[in-house]
Amino acid sequence: MPPRPPLTWSSLPALALRPVPASLALRPVPTSLAPHTQTRGIRSILPVDLRLSRWDQDNPHAKSPTALSTDKALERKSYTLPHRTGVIARKKGMTAIYDPETGVRTPCTVLQLDRNQVVAVKTRKKHGYCAVQVGFGWRKPQNCTRPELGHYAKARVAPKEELHEFKVRNEEALLPVGALLGPSWFKEGQFVDTKSNTKGHGFTGGMKRHGFSGQPASHGNSLTHRAMGSAGGSQGSGSRVHPGKKMAGRMGNESHTIQNLKVLKVDEENGIIVVNGCVSGPKNCLVNIQDAKKKPWQATDLGLPTRPLSLETVVEEAVVAAAEPVGDAEVVAAA
Amino acid sequence: MAAQRRWHTIIPRDQLSNPPEGIPVTWLKPRKKLSKIYVHPPPRSMPKKCPDPVGVVTASQLATLDSSGARARLFDKENTEGVRVGDVLHVRMREGEPVSGVCLNIRRRGVETAILLRNQLTRVGVEVWVKVFSPLVQSVEIVQRRVRRARRARLYYMRQPKHDMGSVEGLVRTYLRQRAVLGSGGKGAAEMLGKKGKGKGKKK
């Protein structure tokens, strides 16, 4: 039996310097191991500089092909990345708005914002991309896990019902943590994209889910009127069902983005944003609203704010809220 | 505050100083006491402040479209002198021909409130939905009241030949002539006509 190669590469001199035993010389040497000294271990306990090297451009380790290709990818994508963060809203229902002059009726959806606050930001240096994490509403601290409570405590905000991360183009779009975003973040006449989950339909057949034609009602048909029919050819096409074949299954409750909805009304006092047309999902579903990707940047024309309410205002609000009885918001979670 | 979880209580604390036989000592290490996390109070709730945003938008619309509230009263369910299904109505538009017909359905949806009018033009049944708060609708007048209160919310049975009322053109013409003779009413008096129409209904 030939001698086994040593298991710990780092404890030995470089492979090239070592005399190769005759019995090993004929074996193919794994190329990936040849020039490097591989370090094995748990990532989370490695020194910080090694952990961050992947994205940090100041770090010499960042010259890796991964970092460079990520740079290029972000550069390519920056064309469609919004300049500002979005907000989370709740869909409250639909109505219409009339123009008193022309009499034109515009169907619209009413969305309500609730305590949108910046909970965290992601940076190019630390995370590889820029994004703003926004929280919506309020959640009882009893219904949060300890890690979640820690996350909110670090941001000095109350526990949130929902968190969502909005990707933004660059570091300039990052907002201070704790900042409050209201409806005046958007302006009337502006275009936005809304993203929400569609209504769930449960398990549906092929006719409803994919618009199949079904079978005739008569002409000798019996008991198959809404079936999907054949799932594919026989031996000629491999006697198998091709991947992605449309079939019966669960329909709806999928994320759906509607682009370029015009903002018709903004009511800061009541937290209302009214957008043109319909938004996917049932009433009371959560909707992510962000500046329209496919419209030219309208900040200068409309005077869109790039900074939210001052943090002092947020603090004042919190103080006022703390004075009011809000159940057990003062709960201090302990073991 | 948080409930003690099952894996915390493998061994009760009072037994810690008194380890049972055959159990590794590491199990019996006292659990590190968890630090407290401060929970910040939330800002003021928007749903509490404004529980019905759709109502707010509707109200702001009605404030401009129906500032006196007269039209809302005309289609109010509680108003006994308002429009009811089965009444023959005459709707003047800001531009174009007026619409008239028997009211089959009143769809009450705030600013979206609409009525379904059925008439016959050249012996063909025609139905029109009219959005009553539209700025294009100048007035809604009650030509004739239904003699008895309809016992249905929607009079779709009036589409059947047996129940079809036919053309209301004659009724409307008579009404308009009478109104011209009396010299009352006229433009902008739509909201008065709830009372007036009722009087006529009684007369007939």
UniProtKB/TrEMBL annotation, chain A:
- The source's domain of life comes to Eukaryota
Q: Which InterPro entries match?
A: Ribosomal_uL3, Ribosomal_uL3_bac/org-type, Ribosomal_uL3_CS, Transl_B-barrel_sf
Which BP terms from GO are recorded? Answer: translation
Q: Per UniProt, which keywords does this protein have? A: Mitochondrion, Ribonucleoprotein, Ribosomal protein, Transit peptide
Where is the protein found, in the record's own terms? Mitochondrion
Region Disordered: start-end pairs = 226-252
GO molecular function terms attached to this record: structural constituent of ribosome
UniProt key word Transcription regulation? no
User: Ribosomal protein: is it a keyword of this entry?
Assistant: yes
Matching entries from SUPFAM superfamilies are given as: Translation proteins
Instruction: Tell me where it mainly resides.
Output: mitochondrion
An annotated GO cellular component of this protein is: mitochondrial large ribosomal subunit
**Similarity remark:** Belongs to the universal ribosomal protein uL3 family.
What is the name attached to this protein's record? Answer: Large ribosomal subunit protein uL3m
TrEMBL record, chain B:
| Superkingdom per UniProt | Eukaryota
Matching SUPFAM superfamilies: Translation proteins SH3-like domain (SSF50104)
Q: Return any one Pfam family short name.
A: Ribosomal_L19
Does the keyword field hold Ribosomal protein?
yes
Q: Which UniProt keywords apply?
A: Ribonucleoprotein, Ribosomal protein
One GO biological process this protein is involved in is: translation
Any one cellular-component term (Gene Ontology): mitochondrial large ribosomal subunit
- Keyword Metal-binding part of the UniProt annotation: no
Q: Which InterPro entries match?
A: Ribosomal_bL19, Ribosomal_bL19_sf, Translation_prot_SH3-like_sf
Q: Give one GO term, molecular function aspect.
A: structural constituent of ribosome
Instruction: Write out the similarity annotation.
Output: Belongs to the bacterial ribosomal protein bL19 family.
Task: List the PANTHER family.
Answer: LARGE RIBOSOMAL SUBUNIT PROTEIN BL19M, RIBOSOMAL PROTEIN L19
Task: Write down what this protein is called.
Answer: Mitochondrial ribosomal protein-like protein
Name its species: Trichodelitschia bisporula
